[in-house]
Specification:
mainly alpha, single chain, 0% strand, 13 helices, ABC transporter permease
C-alpha cells in the first residue's frame, strides 16, 4: 500500500525565533539589575514606608533614630576619652562619626544576609526583579544615615573642625559605601537563602569586626605607644577600616589618604564581580530556596 506525504508546506519559510537567554546568563543578571533600578519609585516608597512603619504611633517618629545614635555616641565618646586620656573635643566627634558610618555598613551586611528571606512573600507572589529588594535595603540604610547626619552637624557646631573643600569627598565616599552595600546584599542574601546558617555566622563576625575596627578607639593613640606601634598598623588588613576612613576623614576635616580609596575601589570591583557571578548562576533559584 503506497503512502503519500503532503509536502505542500515544504517550500514555505518558517519564522525564525530568537533564542531567549537562559536562566544562567549574564543578560538575565544585568537585566534584573536594570529592571530593579527602573522601579526606583517603588523601592524608594517601600524603603521610606519601612522607616515610618518602624516608628508608627511614636510621638517623635524617625527622630528616635538620631536620638538613640546620639545617646550611644555621647556615652561611648565620654567613656573612652577618659580611658585613653584624650581631649573630648576631638575624640567625641571621632567616635560619633565612626558609629554613624559603622551603622550603615553593619546594617547593609546584617540585613543584606536576610534581604531575600525577609521578603519571601513578595518574591513568591510579586513578579519583580530580585534587585528591587536590594535597592530597597540600601535606600533604607541611606535614609538612616541621613537622619544621623544631624548628630555630625551638631558636633561640628559644638566642637568646630577645620572643614575645607575636602568635605566634598564625603559624597563620592558615601556613594562607594552604598555601591558596596549592593553587592554585599546580593552575595550574602543569595547564599543565606540556600544555607540558613549564614545569617547567625555573619552576625557573630560583624560583632567581632566592630571591636577590631578603630571606631571607639584610634590608630593615632596606639601609634604614640612605641610598644604597640607596629601592631597598630595591622589594622589596615581590616577592609572595613578603609571604608570607614574614606568617609570619616572628610567629615572631620582630616587629611585625605589616597591609599584607602585605592583599596576601596579594588574591593568594589572584586566584590561586584563575585556578586554578579552569584546573581548569574543562582538568581533563578532564590524563589525556590526561600
Amino acid at each position: 500500500m503506497a503512502v503519500t506525504v503532503d509536502d505542500s508546506t515544504a517550500g514555505r519559510e518558517r519564522p525564525v525565533i530568537a533564542d531567549a537567554p537562559g536562566s544562567r546568563s549574564w543578560a538575565r543578571a544585568f537585566g534584573d539589575l536594570s529592571a530593579g533600578w527602573k522601579q526606583r519609585a517603588l523601592w524608594g516608597h517601600l524603603g521610606w514606608q519601612d522607616i515610618k512603619q518602624r516608628y508608627r504611633r511614636s510621638v517623635l517618629g524617625p527622630l528616635w533614630i538620631s536620638i538613640s545614635m546620639g545617646v550611644i555616641a555621647l556615652g561611648l565618646g565620654i567613656l573612652y576619652s577618659l580611658l585613653f586620656q584624650t581631649p573630648i573635643e576631638t575624640f567625641l566627634p571621632h567616635v560619633a562619626v565612626g558609629l554613624l558610618i559603622w551603622n550603615f555598613i553593619s546594617g547593609c551586611v546584617l540585613e543584606g544576609s536576610e534581604v531575600f528571606i525577609a521578603n519571601e512573600g513578595l518574591i513568591k507572589f510579586l513578579p519583580a526583579p530580585l534587585s528591587l529588594h536590594v535597592y530597597r535595603l540600601v535606600w533604607r540604610q541611606s535614609l538612616f544615615f541621613l537622619h544621623n547626619l544631624v548628630i555630625w552637624a551638631v558636633l561640628m557646631i559644638v566642637f568646630p573642625h577645620p572643614l575645607g573643600w575636602s568635605l566634598l569627598l564625603a559624597i563620592p565616599a558615601f556613594a562607594l559605601l552604598a555601591i558596596n552595600g549592593g553587592w554585599i546584599a546580593i552575595l550574602s542574601g543569595i547564599l543565606a537563602t540556600r544555607f540558613r546558617d549564614i545569617p547567625p555566622i555573619i552576625a557573630s563576625v560583624v560583632q567581632l569586626v566592630f571591636y577590631m575596627t578603630p571606631i571607639v578607639w584610634s590608630v593615632d593613640i596606639l601609634g604614640d605607644n612605641p610598644a604597640v606601634q607596629e601592631r597598630a598598623r595591622l589594622v589596615e588588613l581590616n577592609p572595613v577600616f578603609h571604608f570607614l576612613e574614606i568617609l570619616r576623614r572628610p567629615l572631620l576635616g582630616q587629611e585625605t589618604v589616597w591609599r584607602y580609596w585605592y583599596v576601596v575601589l579594588a574591593i568594589t570591583v572584586v566584590g561586584w564581580g563575585a556578586g554578579l557571578v552569584c546573581m548569574r548562576n543562582y538568581r533563578a533559584r532564590v524563589a525556590y530556596w526561600v
